[in-house]
Structures are given as C-alpha cells and as structure tokens.
Design a protein that fits this description.
Elements lengths: L1 E6 L5 H10 L3 E4 L1 H9 L4 E3 H5 L14 H8 L5 H9 L7 E5 L3 H6 L5 H6 L4 H11 L5 E3 L5 H11 L4 H27 L18 E7 L9 E6 L11 E4 L5 H14 L5 E7 L2 E8 L2 H11 L1 H4 L2 E5 L5 H7 L4 E6 L4 H6 L7 E4 L7 H6 L4 E6 L2 E6 L11 E2 L7 H14 L7 E4 L4 E5 L5 H14 L7 E5 L6 H10 L1 E6 L6 H11 L2 E4 L8
Parallel strand pairs: 1-2, 1-4, 2-3, 4-5, 11-12, 12-13, 19-20, 20-21
Antiparallel strand pairs: 6-7, 8-13, 9-10, 9-11, 14-15, 16-21, 17-18, 17-19
Helix pairs in contact: 4-8, 8-10, 12-14, 18-19, 19-20
C-alpha cells in the first residue's frame, strides 16, 4: 500500500506517518512535509523522485503529473486501467493525505493583499483531492487531522479501510473542496483588481454544515433541518450546548434566535421572553431574578410556553421563579449547579448554554450577523444587518417639553426593544421594563391599540410610560392613541410629510417627542 502525504497544516502528521510506516505502508511526500518525515528518520520518497520531474515555478507545479493522478484515478477492477499503469510504470496510490494552502486564514488577516491571496490559492492539492475522492472505491482521502485516529484504528484492525469509510472520506473531501473554492470565489467576487472592497459581492456562496434533522418544520407537514455557518460567530445560537430537555423544534429555534439576538444587545442584566418571533416581555434588572420577574409581568398570558433568554448567569433564585411557569426553551450564558438542579424535574424544558465570548460587550457585538439574507422565489434578498445602536447624542428633541434623564433612559430602552419587534411595532416601556407590546399589524394605529390592550390585560398602568414606534407616525392619530393610554414621552424616526402635524400634536398633549433619525422595520 502506498500513501501520498502533502500537508500545509502539519498538526499530528508526523505521528500519523510513523503509524503508517509501522503498518508497512510506503510513504510518498512533497517539499516541507517530506523533509519533516525524513528528519524524523522515516523512509520517504520525494514526489519529484517518484515522477522523475522536478518541482518548478516556485512550487506551483509539483504534483500535476500522470504518475500522481494515474496512481490515484486508476480503477483497480478495470483491467485496462491496471495495464496502462504497468505500461507506464505508475504505482497505485491507495491513501492520500492532503490539507490545502491556508487561503481562508490568509485573507482573514488584516492587510492581506490581492497578491498574498493569489499565492495562497492551492492548485495541486485540490486536484489530487478530487482525483482520490472520485476514485473512493479504491482510495482513501484524508483532508483534516481529525480523521487520522479513526483511519489508523481501521487500518490496524483490518489492514484496509471499509468501503463506507472511504465513501465518507470522499464526501468530506468534496465538501472541503467546495468550501475552499467558495472562499476563493467569495473573496475575489468582493474586491476590485486594485484591492478595493465591494459591499455586496458579484457572487455569493453559502456554506453551511448540518447540525441536525428536526422533527418537522414550521408545520407538521413540512420537513426541516438546522444548519450552521461554516465558521459560526462566538456567542451565536448555533454554538449552544443543550444541557437538558427534548429536541428543539423548528419553531423553538426560530424563536430562540429572536430572543437571544435581542437579549445580547443589552449590557445590564436582561431577560427577553419571546412568543411567535416577537418579544412579549423585556426587562433589565440588578440580576437575573429581577430581570425575569419584570419581563414576565409585561404579558403573563403570552409568556406561557414562551422562549426565555437571559444575558446573565442563571442562579437558583431565578430558576425557582422561572420553573413555576410553562417554559419551552431557557437560554443563558451559564447556569449554577443549583439552578440546573431546579429543572431536573422539568425534563421537557430545553436548557441551552451559550458561552459568552471573551472580550465583553465588544465580543457580543462581533457575534452579530453582518448580513441579513431572505429567500425569495429563485433568488435572495441581501442587506447589511440592522446593527444600528442609538446613543443619547443621536436624539433630536422636537417637542417644546424637554425630556428628563429618566425619560431619556426609558426612550432608549423602548427603542432598543422595538428593533426586535415585528413591524408595525409600538412598544410602551417604563423603568427598564416593557409595559405593552403591539407587533406585526398592517396598521400602526392597530399596533398602538393592541399594546395598550395587552397592558390592561396584565393590569399594568401606562401612565408616565415612554413609547417607541419603529417607523414614523403617518398621521397624528397613532400618537393620540398612545398619549391617551398614558404615554408622556415618544421616540420615533421622523421623516413623514406630516411630521409637523405629529409634533404639533405632541405639544398639544404636552408630551416629549424625540426623533431617532433611523427606522427599524422588521419583516
């Protein structure tokens, strides 16, 4: 048996080659890999000696040779193939170990030039991997160090790889080539020849890894699965570890993502409760217990069977309070052992731990998606993600009445929540707590009415509340509704032809109005 080894990442390769040699497998290698093996005392044949043709063009050409690809591609069960190998003195290659030039790592570095990127595009490696993977019935192809141990165990046990193993390795190899080619296409499609960047590439290549099949999709007659990005951001939902509970459903995951994205936008201890993709309760507090208690008060009816996310470690006190309610999914960066003990009897509650990335708030921000993508018929809509954060300095007070410091904090809180509520969105808040949420209505006026109705159902007074509207009030009637409900301050983007009419109405009512200058539609 002959093995060809040519790797850029040499993690574990010496030990792997030593084990192959111990199994009487002949070693063939290139360049730096061959030197590493030879320096360790292993008998290894250089590819140039094997082919009788030297490496050339600064190593750009070394394995593109019939003695390499003939040895990989020849079918052992086709007499004509084997006769051709004998005629041209080509030995079979039964095991290929290749990982590619580090293109992805190169272009991820600050200051990477187009020239750097081009020189790290592997040609010979992918060609060999394709040849070996195509001929998987006769050749085993390894493209990652994580495969070494399993392959060795199988070779030691039976002297050869099982057919199902060779097929699995082939699939992994083609996947790796797809990822590699996609990374190159993404990079080159995103730049100009002078190295300047394009915000939206000429071609985009999605690369996702399946994490699990789901029981069904949004409805029971639909099938579904969960995939993650090839390189998921730290602190994102797909990095979660499920500590207990039933399998997650499609709807669980969609709602959990909505809750997690909202809660991690807060720096104070926060709790977000989501039902059917909309926050039905959001609050901040001194700890997880206070944040949850306030969030739950917003809409206890909708919170039944909801998704709960906290950006703060969950302790036993908060766990005891949460456990009194029916919860589908509970998420936090960490759980104390005592908190987990509380839920041991609630075996169906899905508990997810999502590790907080190092680096504090900045790391949470890095973990956000940079692009939003929506599928449309035979196409994609792509936009930069709505990661805009509003600061006090961004606010423009347009009413005669000036906001108090407390009102400003409530307005910023309400605005942050409104960003995660489906449009049209109206959100009443006070003292770091949502008091009423109106979501997803065709009319902003109806959203305002629904928000006040929900507050009434929860026996919450809207007197003195701050209200956020995710887009401008097209008429004064929406403002009239929220003020009649008790709001004393309002934040909205502005930009309507009737802005002055709405501002005049605010002055007529004697309430504060500030403009954000940016809207937060969420469809």
């Amino acid at each position: 048996m002959n093995a060809l080894i040519s790797v850029s990442d040499k993690t574990g390769i010496l030990e792997f080659a030593q084990a192959l040699h111990a199994l009487n497998i002949k070693l063939l290698s290139t360049g730096g890999t061959a030197k590493l093996l030879a320096d360790a005392g292993l008998p290894v044949t250089e590819v140039a000696d094997h082919t009788g043709f030297p490496e050339m063009l600064d190593g750009r050409v070394k394995t593109l040779h019939p003695k390499i690809h003939g040895g990989l591609l020849a079918r052992r069960d086709v007499p004509e193939h084997m006769a051709a190998l004998k005629e041209h003195d080509i030995a079979t290659i039964d095991l290929l170990v290749v990982n590619l030039y580090p293109f992805e790592a190169t272009v991820a570095k600050l200051g990477c030039t187009l020239e750097d990127a081009i020189e790290n595009i592997d040609i010979g490696g992918p060609a060999m991997v394709r040849s070996a993977a195509k001929n998987w019935k006769d050749v085993g192809v390894l493209t990652d160090a994580s495969q070494y141990a399993g392959v060795l165990a199988e070779l030691k046990a039976g002297g050869k790889l099982l057919e199902k193993t060779r097929f699995a390795l082939s699939v992994a190899a083609f996947n790796r080539i797809s990822q590699y080619d996609g990374a190159i296409s993404d990079y080159l499609s995103s730049i100009q020849p002078d190295g300047s960047n394009l915000q939206f590439p000429a071609q985009t290549n999605g690369r996702f890894i399946k994490l699990q099949d789901l029981r069904y999709g949004e409805n029971s007659h639909q099938q579904a699965a969960l995939y993650r990005d090839l390189h998921p951001a730290p602190g994102s939902l797909v990095t979660a570890k499920q500590l207990q509970g039933k399998e997650l459903s499609y709807n669980n995951i969609a709602d959990a993502d909505a809750a997690w994205e909202c809660v991690k936008s807060f720096t104070d201890a926060a709790c977000v409760i989501v039902k059917h993709a909309n926050p039905c309760g959001v609050a901040i507090g001194v700890d997880a217990l206070e944040a949850y208690t306030k969030a739950f008060k917003t809409d206890p009816t909708s919170a039944f069977g909801g998704i709960i996310a906290l950006n703060f470690p969950l302790d036993a006190r908060a766990a005891l309070q949460i456990s009194k309610q029916f919860v589908e999914v509970l998420m936090a960066p960490s759980f104390t052992p005592e908190a987990l003990e509380v839920f041991k009897t609630k075996v169906n509650v899905r508990i997810l731990q999502i590790d907080m990335p190092p680096g504090g708030d900045a790391a949470w921000e890095q973990g956000r998606n940079h692009m939003d993508i929506k599928r449309v018929g035979s196409g994609l809509l792509m936009q930069t993600a709505d990661n805009h954060e509003l600061a006090l300095a961004d606010l423009k007070v347009v009413s005669k009445l000036q906001p108090t410091p407390a009102q400003l904090q409530d307005l910023l809180f309400a605005w942050k929540v409104a960003k995660y509520v489906k449009s049209n969105a109206i959100v009443f808040c006070k003292d770091g707590m949502t008091m009423g949420v109106g979501a997803g209505q065709m009319s902003r006026l109806d959203s305002a009415r629904i928000a006040s109705i929900k507050a009434g159902h929860a026996s919450l007074s809207l007197a003195g509340t701050a209200v956020a509207s995710d887009a401008f009030f097209p008429f004064r009637d929406g403002l009239d509704v929220v003020v009649d409900a008790g709001a004393t301050s309002v934040i909205q983007p502005g930009g309507s032809m009737r802005d002055q009419e709405v501002i005049d109405a605010a002055n007529e009512h004697g309430v504060v109005m500030v403009l954000s200058g940016v809207r937060h539609f969420r469809h």
